[in-house]
Input
Amino acid sequence: MTKPTLPPGTRDFGPDVVRKRNYIFSTIRNVFERYGFQPLETPAMENIETLMGKYGDEGDKLIFKILNNGLANPEKEELTRKEFEKVLQGKNSKGITERALKYDLTIPFARYVAMNHAQLIFPFKRYQIQPVWRADRPQKGRYREFYQCDADVVGSDSLLNEIELANIYNDAFSQLGIKNYELRINHRKILTALAELCGGAEKMNDIAIAIDKLDKIGLEKVKEELVRKHFSAAQLSVIENYLSIYGTNKEKLSGIKSLLLNNVTGEKGIKELEHLITNCRLVAQNSSLILDFTLARGLNYYTGIIFEATAKDVSIGSIGGGGRYDDLTGLFGVPNIPGVGISFGVDRIYDVMEELSLFPASLQVSTQVLFFNLGDAESNVSFDLMQQLRQKNIRCELYHEKTKFDKQFKYAEKKNIPYVVILGGEEIKNKSCKLKNLAEGKQQDISWNDLLNYSFT
RNA sequence: GUGGCUGUAGCUCAGCUGGUUAGAGCAUCAGAUUGUGGUUCUGAGGGUCGUGGGUUCGAACCCCAUCAGCCACCCCA
Output
């Protein structure tokens, strides 16, 4: 018998952790609901072709594939071997695998919209809180199974959606207590325009990947990487000019305007960003909304404004991201449904909140009242009282066996139970009990009737 | 997929240039204390030193392999 272990990158969540995670989920869910978003759930697994090719080559490698059943069937052995050859060559084979765990929530959502667009009321605003899986190598802040909380609007190209999504980030983070966050924004069309200035829109990916690392590796390394990708000196200087735009959002806007002068694609992007910035009306006076032309984001279906949220006090990578995609459902044969969405990375938000001690202490109180067990006769009375309290929504438990006070007190302490009720033979005679507040160490005699009407806090 | 670091009690770790029976704190359990917890005191249990092999009179320590965990790169939440 070997010690049981977890698959790498997965975790068990104990009671206190689940409480904290649920706190994050319900906070975000409430914000989503308040903005008129509706819940959606999709299966853990999708047909593999629904997912493949949607996340770029790197993404394809990280999709968790599910082995088909019945591969051991001797009648199909010949075929199975042949199919497996394809897998060895790096191809997908439906004979070996035809399903995969979902990689994110956006593509399954697009699949859902494509399948149900005739019934949906547009614009369709949905939120989705579910686990996703990636065959990545785990490390700090990076897991193989993790939750995403997505909110997307499809069927509308109004920038009002971007404005609302930015405000959702602001509301959710401020309610969670993460005051010091940054929401950085950029526009894919600006990146495209830069690529056009450098000789071709097809270079956008190379440029984006390189400049995205600017704050991490510095300008020189970025240039080195671009040289490796065969960019000329002239192109490099264009990119360097682009990267040297700095200042307030306003200053950056005027900088980018002069750089991308007369570029139709770029101008459209600039106009949209300008609209978002001036109309966003974040509670925090826009201080957390930051224009960042180095922001690229990996997912290659984005076409418009892109978002990325980071917590400033904790270096853990982004805690949320999103953007606009013009034609996501086109991949599934239903064209012309534009959309925009954002995602919260709950696991990372958890780590941030833990590090900054932002969880309310009240989350750790599960049971409110512990009834001491002083014997069978006493317990019977306690049990009746306890059931009446439970009817009133007070969370109670009766100690499971008669034992000395020491143990029962320590149990209450360890479980962080704020009140204990002591009810023995003496108390039964007067129809009373002793109610003790453990934190204050104070104890009072109280009638059964008063106990039932006591306001436990 | 590529590279680096670390594996000693349930947890955090000590363990000298290789030397006899591997330690500490916390946690657990019991007692001091059979109707009043948190503090304190006393005691107890708990180890294949990740695993397998090698070198050696002798290995937790050195060598090889292997497994696991962590971190970084790529990419990403």
Q: What stands out?
A: Chain A has a mean pLDDT of 88. Residues 188-296 of chain A form one domain. Residues 15-34 of chain A form the longest helix (20 residues). The two ends of chain A are 47 Å apart (CA to CA).
